[in-house]
Specification:
Number of domains: 1
CATH topology: Rossmann fold
Strand content: 15-25%
Distance between the termini: 28 Å
Oligomer: single chain
CATH class: Alpha Beta
Strand order of the largest sheet: 1-2-4-3-5-6-7-8
Order of helices and strands: EEEHEHEHEHHHHHEHEH
CATH superfamily: Alpha/Beta hydrolase fold, catalytic domain
Structural class: alpha/beta
Largest sheet: 8 strands, mixed
Helix content: 25-40%
Number of strands: 8
């Protein structure tokens, strides 16, 4: 069964939209999904329904500035006037608290994709205790200098244009190179997946076709910066199982190098159970790739294995 619901955001003004996918019978595990940039939680309907067939309850929310959590047109790609990164992380935690009350003692997993992978890395540094595992999908690595530069540029432009301004320059700086490997490309979003039906559906949906504001980019860069600091990685519970998955042709992860770097940094900081799996030929959205059945099977096997421990 699939059900929509709402709950108050940490920003104090927004009603956050969520969806839960409830399996028939006993719930063996919970997976909370943290979606990516310029998408929405219902894009995970296929994998959620599959997980339901394995007795796994799935839940997730549309972040601030995304999907049905948007208050008005100008709020697409806008987080919050103050502490936007903290509000988004707080909304993830609120949903977990709500869900754990429904299913106390059930193995609890968090799965974050793309922007959600960076949010998930930050989340497990702060709220990792009590989780049975974390899946980090479609992630990458940015140097501290690159992130500082990105934040400085956002701040400088916002001084003249305001934080709700959508800067083509910043957008191109962040995303402009992603399609280069796939040119001549059929669409601007060929880097997402080899599945043309998924790409066409993405291109056709207004909820996938807006530009981030300076506010959201600044908060995104801030969150990645926080997540990558060694002192913060060291806060991840050392016994927390972490599965890092990515496509070998994913430009967000610099074609496999970024996820490997993330895994290396986790291990250096003492996280003992870190698995990094790169799927050759897959692009950014491995859950929407042509070989998604392979990805699905390995994900379910990993969750099932970690649920027993």
């Amino acid at each position: 069964m699939k059900r929509d619901f709402r709950y108050p955001s940490r920003d104090g003004r927004t009603s956050i939209h969520g969806i839960e996918w409830i399996p028939d019978g006993e719930v063996s595990a919970v997976v909370q999904v943290v979606h990516g940039m310029v998408e929405f939680i219902d894009r995970y309907d296929r994998i959620a329904n599959l997980l339901n067939t394995k007795g796994i309850y799935v839940v997730g929310n549309d972040h601030l500035g995304h999907g049905a959590s948007v208050v008005s047109e100008e709020d697409y790609g806008y987080f919050a006037e103050k502490d936007g990164n903290r509000c988004v992380i707080g909304d993830i935690q609120t949903l977990r608290e709500m869900t754990e009350k429904k299913y106390p003692g059930v193995p609890y997993f968090i799965l974050g994709h793309s922007m959600g992978s960076f949010l998930t890395a930050q989340y497990i540094e702060e709220y990792g205790e009590g989780l049975s595992g974390a899946v980090i999908s479609g992630t990458g690595y940015q140097s501290a200098g690159t992130l500082r530069t990105g934040k400085a540029i956002c701040k400088a432009i916002a001084a003249f244009k305001g934080w709700k301004y959508r800067s083509p320059f910043v957008n191109n700086m962040a995303l402009g190179s992603y399609n280069k490997k796939f040119e001549p490309a059929r669409t601007a979003n060929d880097w997402l997946t080899r599945d043309t039906e998924i790409v066409d559906a993405y291109c056709a949906n207004p909820w996938n076709n807006f530009m981030f504001t300076l506010n959201a980019y600044y908060n995104l860069f801030t969150g990645i910066e926080i997540a990558e600091r060694e002192e913060n990685i060291s806060r991840i519970p050392k016994e927390l199982p972490v599965l890092i998955v990515s496509g070998g042709d994913d430009p967000v992860g610099n074609f496999g190098k970024g996820p490997a770097k993330v895994a290396e940094n986790f291990r250096k900081c003492g996280v003992r159970d870190v698995k990094c799996r790169i799927y050759p030929g897959d692009r950014h959205e491995i859950l929407n790739e042509l070989d998604h059945e392979v990805v699905d099977g390995e994900l379910i096997d990993w969750i099932t294995d970690k649920s027993r421990k």
